[in-house]
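**Fold tokens**
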Amino acid sequence: PWYGTGWYYPPYVGAMYYPYYTSSGHGNFYNPNTGTYGSRSVAYGPYGGYSYNEAYNPNTGRYGYVETAWDGDEWASYGEMHNSRTGVSSETSRHYSEDKDRMKTERTLERGGESIEMERTTDYNDRWSETSRETSRGGESEMRREWDKDGNLTSSGTIEAGDGRTATVSGNYQDGQGSTTITGSEGGSGTVTRDYNGSGVTREGSFESSSGETIGSSTQRQGNTTKTQLESSSGGSLTSVSEGRGRTTVGQSAEGDLYAGHDGNVYKKSDEGWQKYDSSGGGWNQVDKNTQARSTERSGTTRSQGSSSRDYSQLNRDATARRQGQDRFQQRQGSGRRGSMSRSGRSRGRRR
């Protein structure tokens, strides 16, 4: 059961949306889209209130809870989260003061004895926020953002690695377009531009190391589908497509080794054949040899070998099709009348 006062409360606090809590009650819930189970309890009185929420997702292994208390002009919350599969734990506390129209957040993330601590202060009245982070390895960062009443945003900050290397960050966002530039103390730099047109987001990036090597990136996101392409000046390339929770990635190194991954399974094609990566610490293993060994240990080996051989035959057919397509594309580029662009970005065609 849930009970309310019958009164309407404005859900906005400054520029942020915070729906007011139900007066009192308790309930459980289940989300079939995410697989999350949870419960919520809340109590409200004339001078304030308190709520407790907890949830668990068996698909991801994530469990967490958060408790919140409030009175007439401020509220505070504290929560913890733990993921048994990844080993990541977090603690988060928040406090908002209506008198100052300011929010302060503190968060700690831990995994395997390493941690990141974050502090953020947001002033909704003067339209600015400051965020600092510090890692257990000695790295730290400071970022400040400012925005106007129209939502235009500027940002600036510094980053320092645990070994003493530093970088400066600057960015801006206006009318659906923005860019961020990072410049490192060792000479490397990178710029990412973003464009939101109402139906999707496009990101273009260019990165250069201190030695002059470059990587170009392009990402298009529309709905629940995201496609990212990378190409380096040394000849490596990669394409990654995600839809919903699934992701498929195909990459090729400058030496011609081909990598293919889908939902956590990664394969590499080299001169020795296909290899599969063991994320538990086993490194790269020859899939043909391992498959043959596993098949001979089982009964009904004919069916096992046939199924596995079809899988790897498909990998070989996909690799051949990609190579032939790339060869035909280069042939068309070479036979065309217009000049093509080399990997370094210089035109190789003659001027008219």
Notes: DSSP finds two helices and 26 strands in the chain. The first strand starts at residue 2 and ends at 3.
